[in-house]
Amino acid sequence: MGRRERRLFTHEFKAEVVGLVRSGRAVAEVSRDLDLTESAVRTYGHRAEDRGSSLSVAEWEELSRLRRQVRVLEEERTILKKAAAFFARKAG
Q1: Handedness of CA 54, 14, 71, 63 (dihedral sign)
Q2: Which of the chain's termini has less CB crowding within 10 Å, N or C?
Q3: Do 49 and 67 share a structural domain?
Q4: Dihedral angle over CA of 55, 64, 38, 26, nearest 10
Q5: What's the helix, strand, coil split of the chain in %, to 5?
Q6: What distance in Å separates the CA atoms of residue 87 and residue 65, rounded to the nearest whole number?
Q7: Are residues 12 and 57 in contact, defined by beta-carbon separation less than 8 angstroms?
Q8: What is the pLDDT of residue 2?
Q9: Where are the beta strands (DSSP E) in the chain?
């Protein structure tokens, strides 16, 4: 049996998979019904537990997006500081 091409799933889909398992269905049953590996279903569940239930999927997506944006802005600020120091030395 060959390797299957990697598929990408939305956060909403993964949340529904976790919901099915939490509702009492077996991991093997859910994975078989949705054509997923059991390890993928378990991973979705572990990640959902790590995230906690205090934030929704949309809130987690926004949090991830904002963290990426902060990282980019911090890199830009560092570059600008170095450029200002370079030009200050050159002018002086």
Answers
A1: negative
A2: N
A3: no
A4: 10
A5: 75, 0, 25
A6: 33
A7: yes
A8: 74
A9: none
Rounded distance between C-alpha atoms, residue 13 and residue 19, angstroms: 10
Residues in contact with 22: Cβ distance below 8 Å, sequence separation at least 6, in sequence order: 45
Q: Which amino acid type is present at position 89?
A: R
The pair of structure tokens assigned to 65 is 């997006």
Residues sharing a CB contact under 8 Å with residue 30, sequence separation 6 or more, in sequence order? 17, 20, 21, 36, 41
19 and 39 in a common domain: yes
Q: Could you tell me the two tokens for 80?
A: 């600008």
Please, what is the average pLDDT of the chain? 87
Instruction: Indicate the pTM of the whole model.
Output: 0.52
The string of pLDDT tens digits covering residues 8-49 is 888 888 888 888 888 899 999 999 999 999 998 998 888 877
Q: Is residue 4 part of a domain?
A: no
